[in-house]
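Protein 1 of 2
SEQ + STRUCT:
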Amino acid sequence: NIWRESSEEKKNPCTYLSCYWFYMYTNDSNREKVLGWIKKRGIFSKRYVFVPIVLWSHWSLLIFCNFGGSSPCMLLLDSLHTLGPLRLETLIRRLVLDIYETEDRPEDRNFVEKIPLLVPKVPQQRNGNECGVFVLYYINLFLESAPQSFSISSGYPYFMKEDWFTEEELERFYDRLEFLGIESSDSE
């Protein structure tokens, strides 16, 4: 488990949501339940929140940055840019607004619409079933390298580039997952 293997120092400014919650949130009958779970987690007290997104048989990673501070932004990491990751923007912004409303925060729709949603050019998958492994690796690497402070005015975090990692590094990570008994699947 990536989370358990990380040091408390690395995990402290971060939290995560279950990979099922975003999908469940998109179903009207589950929305209030999911928002209640999120409220209990107090996610915006953390500097970074990992939100794995599984929709349309594809995994992406949303990271809420500085939502408890004065300059929040969102990073959407997608290993298959050809699918057009910004197709998720409306759902993401609706989720953020609903979380704010559930937590009785003063932020409104205008505020949420102005929160930058950035889609960095990150390494891309080579086939149709690697997206889950990429999301896990993005989380793993972000935990290891997350900056103490991050502002979009200074650009993406320094490490978040197309050459963030090599195929060989990803392959070693994949082997580690297989050793731990975690199989990759694009829809589970």
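Protein 2 of 2
SEQ + STRUCT:
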Amino acid sequence: MVVIGKDRDIILDVSPPPLAGLSIDGKLTFSDDVDLVLSTEWIMLHGELTIGTPDRPHTRKATITFTDHVQGEDVMAGMGDRGIMISGGTLNLHGNRTHTWTKLAKTANRGATQIEV
């Protein structure tokens, strides 16, 4: 298990090996310079976890994967054994906004093999 202490401000700029758990009492910020993967059993958040801000959204790929190598583990009085468990902490997730749709420039008729956007 990894503990980020109350007075610590850590910037994650490499993907660490899989963790048995992550307790954040201080601050953990994902760097926006590289794609990152964080694999862990769970995250207990008493401090702050930041991946991007409203003014500077995260533009790289950030992946958090919850493993279940310790099945049935009870992290904190019934909170379960996988996920981000927030107890007095702050979770900031702001990604790059992209459109997942667009308007057609012309009507697409039934059976059309081309469309104009």
